[in-house]
Amino acid sequence: MSQHDPDPGLSADQLHEIERKFDPELAFRPTGRAIGMVISAVLVAMSAYHIYAAGFGLVRELLHRGIYLSFVLGLVFLLFGRRRALSTEIPEPAWFRVGGVPIMDILLAVLAVMASLYLPLLPPEVVSVRVGNPSASDVAMGTALLLLTLEATRRSVGITLPIIALVFAAFALFGPWAPGALKHGGVSWEGLINHLYMTNQGIYGVAIGVMAQYVFLFILFGVLATRIGLGQLFIDIAMVIAGRYAGGPAKVAIFSSAFMGTISGSSIANTVTTGALTIPAMKKIGYPPHFAGAVEATSSTGGQITPPILGAAAFIMVEYLEIPLRDVLAAALFPALLHYFGIFIMVHLEARKLGLRGLRAEELPRAGLVLRQHWLSIIPLFILVYMILTGKTPDFAAVYGIIACVVVGFLNPVNRLTVRDLWVALSDGARNTLAVGAAAATVGIVVGVVTLTGVGFRMGYVVVQSATDIGNAIGAIWPLSLFTVGQWTLFFSLVLIAVACIIMGAGIPTTATYIILVAVAAPALGLLNIEPIVAHFFVFYYGVLADITPPVALAAYAAAGIAGANPFTTGNTAFRLGIAKALVPFVFVYSPALLIITDGFTWVSFAVTLAGAMIGIAGLGAAFSGFFLTRMTRLERCWVGLVSLLFIAPGLTTMALGALLWSPIAILQFSKRLKET
Fold it and tell me: How many helices (H) and strands (E) does the chain have?
């Protein structure tokens, strides 16, 4: 369980294969030595360029986005095969390949680079004249880039996102035939390419801009920080903090995943990294395999909502909301803590129910030795967070965090960084950004159609109108008429949007999901007079929930592969453990004080909201675990679960009512516990 006690069940190669199997973003094709060295050099050049551009250079916005996109698309065609499934590539004759890469893919890579750089390399005054009146070459290059972007995304992410983009493109072209409120005048192919290619509202829009300016650097920082030992420090500290208590390894999984989430937003990578240690240890002390896998998957998914990276969504929020990054991080802090609190409660109650032990002293690392060996590795994270909190731009902070990683790596006697290690880290960091970069370009197509047709507000109107109809129907039923139609409209609008977000997020990278949902679902929340930052966090949280929601719960399936458990059972258990994440967005919609920076914030309202949310989450944990002070009957579980929902809208009144309704079960549990002891 410690760094000296490696996973007895799975080798490093097997863990890598699990990660590759369940994370399409890492399913790279094997290449020959010569072309592999060329690709590695291009990846390092990509990293070096972005460090230079962010820290020391001045590059025009469009040109910077074009260079980033050319790197991404060109490398995707070289590194990702034309797959039928996650790990199956279409077979081709050997003479069609150069070093394992098909000649056709090399040609597509060259064409993708040309199409990506064609517009950015034109003089700005020429581009401004052609917007609205593209030339034939503009339309040809724009069409090529659109198709190549869709194919690159299909290879690196999967078929779901390209299909969504094609549906939106068809909606733009065939608007006159759309049903009801979605009907619009439609656009020609030239008009669509003009908007998606010639303006900053499409492929070269906010999504690809944020990837190029911020996300790339933070992913690279995470790779370097892990390489210099910060990941091992997090795992060892988590073991020192929580390992000795009941169900210790499961609590270690929660703490270590929370710590890892500060430097990595990839739920699958976090699951494999920490799960290789925590899942076998959980099974060893008595947790069922599916539960062990679910704990790790749910905890690791929390990395996408944990500051300072938020799975890259923080930087998108900065661009859309035009607020400082530190404000976004402040808003994200307590909802993330509530997510981990919910998992902790369920893990603790499960351990009590099963009578599980913690880790013995000999199974735990020594705190003094851990800090003595790895304290240097946390310096880059402190520098990064300090610079963000003092108002420096995220890209500037990331560059100096990267520099700090390199300096610490060369100075640290433990996990010392060599020149070869630095080369590999720069290469791996760039490689890990390719899939999300391709996805961001495809998301630009979706967002471009939304801005071109106004479909976001049209869909928002449909959602609110449907929720109003449901509210009118239910509001006529006594005693539910105690709630106003407006209250029912808000509640059912939130439910409909939450379900749509979970469905939309199935099989799509979190950042891409969030950008689409902001464009499509957030306008509906705006029609309900919900603050923009609250609307953004609401759709973001439910998009993230898709990673542990069957049938496409990739993080849970990766954990099941390590645990040797049934994937679907693991996914269902992970969703149950992550129920707090499903509750928290409703809490901050009804009581925005939880996000700290919202209008009308007071510390009193914040304290009431936080306390109410914690009680409600603890109640749900008891209901789903079937254990409070002792085992609960089915009737007790149902009652406690329903009462806990009162805390969706925390306040002194609902808290008092909840406590009153809770009290009979608490008294009954206490008396049963006395009889047992």
Answer: 32, 4
